[in-house]
Design brief:
Length: 167
């Protein structure tokens, strides 16, 4: 491993950041042969880290898909997908709602349901209501509520119902 990458990792920088920093450092080298050698070494280390699974390269669309997949789970803020601050042009906005279609509806008693969405996620209603009757193939919208709650609304069925993500 290149000395600058090792030093960055010892300071607690993530491996991907250290490898990107090494590539950036190569740009400042004046001599063509030395700069090319630096780039070759840094690129080889980055590719090896990616191939071994130590580093994952994720573009903005991949970040959006990942955020949609975890929508509804209570996760700590780890900064994995940006912090939702778009002011610096790097953050991705938080997912506030998803729209899908019901692929499966299972009554579990007491007016409660397990709702399977077309994207493979499963949600459970948390309040039994007699005026909520979901059916397969209906469009559904799930929105983030307050204090970590989520609300599901089926098109054409009036008021929504509180739900929690179960899978």
């Amino acid at each position: 491993m290149a000395a600058p990458v090792l030093a960055q990792e010892q300071r607690g920088e993530a491996r991907g950041d250290a490898l990107a920093g090494e590539l950036a450092r190569c740009r400042s080298i004046g001599g063509d042969a030395e700069r090319l050698a630096c780039f070759d070494k840094a690129a080889a280390e980055l590719i090896a880290a990616r191939d071994s699974g130590q580093v994952v390269v994720l573009d903005r669309e991949g970040m959006r898909r990942a955020k949609r997949r975890v929508f509804g789970f209570q996760l700590p803020r780890l900064g994995l997908f940006g912090d939702g601050d778009e002011a610096d042009g790097k953050g991705e906005p938080e997912v506030k709602e998803i729209e899908s279609t019901l692929s499966r509806v299972t009554a579990i008693g007491g007016g409660l349901y397990i709702l399977g969405l077309a994207d493979g996620t499963q949600w459970q209603t948390t309040e039994g209501r007699t005026n909520f009757s979901p059916r397969k193939d209906q469009p559904i919208k799930i929105e983030a509520g307050i204090l970590g709650s989520y609300n599901a609304k089926i098109t054409g069925q009036g008021r929504g119902v509180k739900v929690k993500r179960v899978r």
